[in-house]
Amino acid sequence: MSASYRDALRAALLYLVFSVVWLEFTGYLLTNIFDESADLQRWQLINGYAWVVLSAGFIFIARARLLGFLGIGAKLRHRNEDRARLRQAQAVFDCTREGVLVTDREGLIVHVNRAFMEITGYQAEEVLGHRPSLFKSGHHPPDFYQEMFQSLNCTSEWSGEIWNRRKSGEIYPQWQTIRVIHDDHSQPSHYVAVFSDISAIKNSEHELAHLAHHDPLTDLPNRLLFSDRVEQALASAQTHKRGCALLMIDLDHFKMINDSLGHNVGDQLLKAVAVRLQGMFGPGITLARLGGDEFAVLAESCPQLVQAAALAQRIIDGLKEPFVIDAHPLFINASVGISLFPSDALSAEQLLRNADSALFKAKNSGRDGYALYTEELTAHAQHRVEMAFELRRALEQQELRVYYQPVHDLKTSRLIGVEALVRWQHPQRGLVAPGEFIPIAERTGLIAEIDAWVMQQACQQMCAWQKAGVVLSFIAVNVSTRLFARRELFERVAQVLHDTGLDPACLELEVTESAVMDDPEVALEQMHRLRELGVRLAIDDFGTGYSSLLRLKRLPVQKLKIDQGFVAGLPGDEDDAAIVRVIIALAQSMGMQVHAEGIEQVEQAAFLLEQGCDLGQGYWFGRPMPAHELDWARAPVIRLERSPNAFRGELTL
Q: Quick check: 332 and 315 in contact, CB under 8 A?
């Protein structure tokens, strides 16, 4: 039933009710008032005319009042406005350049616009009654659609990039917005999807990205993209424990070709060189043009110098064949600089810089050849590279060991502490001396990881000794420059102490003088935080660097360790004796303990005791050894005897 029909029916019923009421009421009155039939008929006729007049006015008033009271007039106005808006929306729907798709609550397509048909290639009759899955490209995983419907359920809207398929089978990108339409009961009634074809935008983005990362002449990666690929390759190489080589190539005397034959010929030659170089390399090798006549090659999985040198020679030989430009043969030679990861550099920037330095060396050496960043072309260099990889494996395979060297109080001869020292138990070579692998660990950055591991092991061992009743004042652990420079050292130490339960006062951290002086402000901050934690601090190898006494007095240090280089000449070397006296006097004046390393003779121990040195360690007291081999009962006693001509000491066990 239409709205207008219902309105008419309401008006008719209202008129009928009032007519019946009026006629019945007036008929009853006239019958009771007039007895004569003539008068009664005349007044009934008058009543009829009066009712016609009154009903006409009543209908007008009632119509206006009733429609206003019931809101029917407003509804009619709103209905007319809605119809106008619908006509406008229909015009926008049909004229918009965005595709529009409407589905019912079951997900069946009920309406599409003209732009939809132009973008997708489907006609309306081909998609009506179907589901939008008809256009799925297979580009997105199921999780993508699950997140889409979850967003629609939660927020009634979803926007994003989606790849769909045209009728022709072409897959193309859309930017699509889907909204849920609810009925009067807040239940989903329809879904409206508005989308635009962003294929042109995507193509433009790809073209701009390609131009930003590739050389326009040769279409090779440029310096920006090459640097990024070097960084990725180094990260992968470090993860998978392999080496990389970076080769910088420069065409010899290329400027002569530009000057004599013109830049057009020069450009053609550069393109020909790029094509020939590409033909030399297989997977795992990246070629780039860095600018001018300079190319670069990144060879992944190239662990040895020999392989890198062979690749450089292949490039040099391959470019010796003539290039035919405009029917004329052109000859060009090349110089190559080589830098290796991890032996020469640990970062992409450093690797590029070192390869450029090697290239400069090759050009200065007569050109038409290659040079390495380092001159260690011997077996020693190869051994060093192999050692670095083996050391990484040693950390993973738990081949490292912690040895402990006793520290004695020189006055009482009592063993009061130990220093934790790392050793490498190689499966083939046996126990590797620290001098062989510690420099490599420092060069490759592994020393920080090794230091952290030693600290964990040492603290656990100290706790075990304490539980067994062994009385020790401290256990000393070396902190490398790399680990000390890291601001998370405090967190690392705190975590180790928390995990092991060791009293912080039992842990002594030894920091080299050079580590402190590299960045004094950072060192001061680190050391104060460590002291707040409760650990002891010592300056190791004191006197070997360039100490600042002004900074030294600000450091919260409890101990100075005299380097074994000064102890070795005692007591006969006057210079060593004078330096030791000064260090001991300085420490005592600043309220610090003095600890001498490398004591191998009783005379050295006696001299140090005489000068007021507090602690000593060295082979004379005991060599570094596994925890279970420490002799807790051994207590060397130093007796001093003075004579007019000499100073000597005696050892009593």
A: no
| DSSP state, residue 322 | P
Three-class secondary structure assignment of 144-201: HHHHHHHHHHHHCEEEEEEEEECCCCCEEEEEEEEEEEECCCCCEEEEEEEEEECHHH
CA–CA separation, 198 and 176 (whole Å): 10
- Rounded Cα distance between 247 and 313, Å, is 11
Q: Which residues of 196-220 are buried (b: 16+ CB within 10 A; e: fewer)?
A: bbbeeeeeeeeeeeeeebbbeebeb
Chain-centre distance for alpha carbon 301: 23
Question: Quick one: which of 310, 316, 265, 309 has its CA closest to 295?
Answer: 316
SS3 443: helix
Inter-residue contact 273 to 333 (CB < 8 Å): no
User: Residue 328 forms beta bridges with which residues?
Assistant: 325
Q: Give the per-residue pLDDT at 377.
A: 39
Residue 393 structure tokens: 């494996």
Residue 425 neighbours by CB distance under 10 Å = 13
Question: Whole-model pTM above 0.70?
Answer: no
* Packing angle, helices 446-467 and 489-500, rounded to 10: 30
Closest CA to 637 of 319, 415, 399, 452: 415
Q: Is 324 exposed, middle or buried (CB count within 10 Å of its CB: 0-12, 13-18, 19+)?
A: exposed
Of the candidates 590, 592, 531, which has an alpha carbon nearest to the alpha carbon of residue 560? 592
Enumerate residues 6+ apart whose C-beta is below 8 A from 584: 562, 594, 611, 612, 613
pLDDT of residue 122: 92
- Residues in CB range of 644: below 8 A, 6 or more apart: none
How does residue 458 score in pLDDT terms, banded at 50, 70 and 90? very high
Q: Which residues pair with 623 in a beta bridge?
A: none
Q: How far apart are CA 640 and CA 650, in angstroms?
A: 7
Share of the chain above pLDDT 70, in %: 84
- CA–CA separation, 85 and 76 (whole Å): 14
CA dist 335 and 356 (Å) reads 11
Task: Inform me whether the pLDDT recorded for 642 exceeds 60.
Answer: no
State how far the Cα of 603 lies from the Cα of 346, in Å rounded to an integer: 46
DSSP 134: G
- Distance from the Cα of residue 126 to its chain's centroid: 48
The string of pLDDT tens digits covering residues 509-549 is 998 877 776 667 777 888 889 999 999 999 987 766 555 56
What is the pLDDT at residue 92? 66
- Collapsed DSSP state (helix, strand, coil) of residue 621: coil
Alpha carbon distance 595, 598 (integer Å): 10
Strand spans (E) along 427-564: 430-432, 474-479, 507-512, 536-542, 559-562
Does the pLDDT at position 73 exceed 80?
A: no
Residues 26 and 43 sit within 8 Å (Cβ to Cβ): no
Bond into 427 cis (ω within 30): no
